[in-house]
Every structure is written in structure tokens, then in C-alpha cells.
Amino acid sequence: MSLSDKVVIVTGASSGIGAAIAEVLAREGAQVALVGRNVSNLEATQATLQQKYKGIKTLNVVADVTKEADLIVQQTLKKFGRIDVLVNNAGILASGPLADLDIVEFDAVLNTNLRAVVLLTKAVLPHLVKTKGAVVNVSSCAGLRPFANALIYGVSKAALDQFTKIVALELAPQGVRVNSVNPGFVQTNIHSRIGIKDEAYKTLLDRAINSHPLGRVGDVFEVAEAVAFLASSKASFTTGALFPIDGGKHNLTPR
Ligand SMILES: NC(=O)c1ccc[n+]([C@@H]2O[C@H](COP(=O)([O-])OP(=O)(O)OC[C@H]3O[C@@H](n4cnc5c(N)ncnc54)[C@H](OP(=O)(O)O)[C@@H]3O)[C@@H](O)[C@H]2O)c1
Fold this sequence. Notes:
- A 7-stranded parallel β-sheet has the order 3-2-1-4-5-6-7, sandwiched between helices.
- The chain has helices at about 15-25, 40-50, 70-80, 105-130, 140-145, 150-170, 200-210, 220-230, and strands at about 5-10, 30-35, 60, 85-90, 135-140, 175-185, 240-245.
- It contains 8 helices and 7 strands.
- The chain is an alpha/beta fold.
- The longest helix is centred in the middle third of the chain and has 29 residues, at about 105-130.
- About 45% of the residues lie in helices and about 15% in strands.
- The relative contact order is 0.15.
- Bound molecules: NADP nicotinamide-adenine-dinucleotide phosphate.
- NADP nicotinamide-adenine-dinucleotide phosphate binds near residues 12, 37 and 190.
């Protein structure tokens, strides 16, 4: 897929969708900087990549995306000497209505899902200009259409989508492409991290299965394949696009 020897940064590579993205990019021959905070989970992703794709070059960057953009860039450049692709995947969830809004939670979600993306993309920018590289943001179906009880998360992803479109216009003259994938429900740790477990998770999952027109939820690798496509030269005439990977859910009218 023309990602051979490209140097790619994947944030949130220690879990779920990010780990799958790292795996698909490695399969396509990329050299991958794996970013996350959980050291043992990062090591597990790295071990999977090295076991499946012999000779693959990887780097673990233990970093908090909300605080350590420069460290991520410096460590990647020190190991690989260039950056071709940035995948802004790290993200956190929140749910609940405006009446119950916790402003600390609001700040934490906006910090991770939006502010950290802005800062890391800015830090990587001069290096992407040199390589005429690409950015792929992992947004959500919740950025494309409203969902009741998804106020904080939906606002963070809608803002991220506008960031994708604006920066795509800004960077097009320099040959840097910026796109997003917008997944529907995918089974990962994202829900348990905010305490949705057991019966509550089963109820949520059943509802999710029924609310996607294709009649099921998504798989991490379905998202990862789309990220790899947008990162590669196969998408060379695509920029500013928001690519729904959501079983058709973005076209449903909100109730
Ligand atoms: N799962 C879904 O249904 C779904 C649907 C639409 C969009 N998405 C989006 O997909 C992306 C990945 O989510 P996921 O479902 O794979 O969730 P996940 O399994 O909970 O993984 C989240 C990843 O983000 C990382 N992360 C979070 N905050 C971070 C920080 N401050 N610094 C560094 N890393 C941080 C975590 O790293 P550590 O654990 O190492 O801290 C972890 O690797 C998110 O942007 C999410 O909004 C998910």
C-alpha cells in the first residue's frame, strides 16, 4: 500500500483501535512509533508487531499526549530521522447530559481529544512538510451527528472534524494531506475505562448492534484498514475528508 519504510507515529497504540492501526501499518511495511502511557500494554503491542512482521522497526514512546508533544517528536526523530505520517488516535470517552456536566471531565476530554491533537500536529508539522506526509485523525460518528447524552465527547469530536478540514486546507499547498476516520461503536476498553461494565455494557452493546444499519458493531481492524488507506499514496488525491466507518450510522436522523 506504498507505506514501505514510511515513519509513522500512532498515539494510543497501547490499546484497542490504536494497537490495530499499528499492526496494519507494520504489515504494510511502515516503521512505527508507538505512543501511550501504559508501558506493559505498549510492550504487548510491540511484541505482537515484532512476532508477526519480522524485521519491523518499532519504537515505544511512553508519553502523555496532553503534555509531551515535543518528547514524542524528538524520540521519533532520534530513532528514525524523519516523520511521514501522524495518526492522532489517543482519545477518551465521556457520557451524560448537560445537567450533570462535570467541568473537570469536560476539560480532560477536550484536552485529550482536541487540544493534544492540535499541539502534536503543530509539533510534527515541519517534519511532515519535509516529507509531504499525511495526518489521519481518529474521530467518531459522534463528530458527524448528534447523540443525546454524548455532549462532551460529541463536542470534542465535532471540533476535531473541523480541525481536520481547516488544517487540510492550510496544508494542501505544501502537499500534506489531513483526513479523519469516524468510527461507530467498536468493542475496546474505551467503555470500561469510564465504568461501563457487565450488565450496563451488555445493554449498551445490544443497543449499538441495533442502531447500526449493518446490524452489528465494528471491528478494530475495519478502522485500521481505513487509516492505512488514508495514510498511503492510494489516497493521494484525498484531503479534508471525514471517512465514516460506522455501518451506515452517520446517515440516520437523530431521534
Ligand atoms: N471504541 C469505539 O467505539 C470508538 C468509536 C469511535 C471513535 N473511537 C475513537 O478511537 C480512538 C481509540 O479509542 P479505543 O476505542 O481504541 O479506546 P481504548 O482501547 O480505551 O484506547 C485508548 C488509547 O488512547 C490512549 N490514551 C488516552 N489518553 C492518553 C493520553 N493522555 N496520553 C497518551 N495516550 C492516551 C490510551 O493509552 P494508555 O492506556 O497507554 O494511556 C489507549 O492506548 C479514540 O480517539 C476514540 O475516541 C472509538
